[in-house]
Amino acid sequence: MEKAAAVKIIQQLADGTDPNTGKSFGADSPYQHPDTVRALFVALRALDAPAAATPAAGKPRGAAPAENAPSNSGKPWSDDEDQALAAAFDAGKKILELATAHQRSRFAIEARLAKLGKIEPPANLRGYAAKTTGAKANGAASDVASYSH
């Protein structure tokens, strides 16, 4: 396999897309786990780095954001961005559309929507126990149904 083909496959996996079918992985996929996504981005960086490259003096490995990561990866969410995300989700935007619009990973969008009480936390999201969201407690339509749009 050529290096370019391998990089393309790893990039698709890191972006949450099955390289064979083009379909998005479900939230319960091991490819959506944060450690897996980080590992894939590290692998991409390693494949893109020149063979003799070494980390810059004084900078620990991994200090720079992944070259192929969305531009807002790791940045804090503002109140305005939270409101825009919630409004777009409520208007029927899909998770991948939101990820593109906010320049964040699919998993980051899912995690933020969970924090905002719009969906159930992804199964592999650390620090969140499975619980009923306010929408379900109020008798609204199933979060799963609204999540799949």
Shape: globular
| Quaternary class | single chain
Helix-strand sequence: HHHHHHH
Proportion of residues in helical segments: 40-55%
Number of structural domains: 2
Largest sheet: none
Give the overall pLDDT as a whole number.
74
The radius of gyration is 17 Å
Low-confidence stretches: 52-59, 130-149
Please report the distance between the alpha carbons of the first and last residues: 36 Å
Assess the beta-strand content as a share of residues.
under 5%
Count of helix runs:
7
Total count of strands: 0
Structural class by SSE content: mainly alpha
Structural summary, described in words:
This protein has 149 residues and is an all-alpha fold. The protein has two domains: 1-69, no CATH class; 72-149, no CATH class. The chain is 44% helix and 0% strand. The protein has helices at 3-14, 34-48, 79-90, 95-102, 106-115, 134-137, 143-147. Helix 1 (3-14) packs antiparallel against helix 2. The radius of gyration is 17 Å and the shape is globular.
Q: Layout of helices and strands, plus pairs?
A:
Blueprint: H1 3-14, H2 34-48, H3 79-90, H4 95-102, H5 106-115, H6 134-137, H7 143-147
Keywords, please?
7 helices, mainly alpha, globular, 0% strand, single chain, disordered C terminus
Brief summary:
The chain is mainly α. It starts with a helix and ends with a helix.
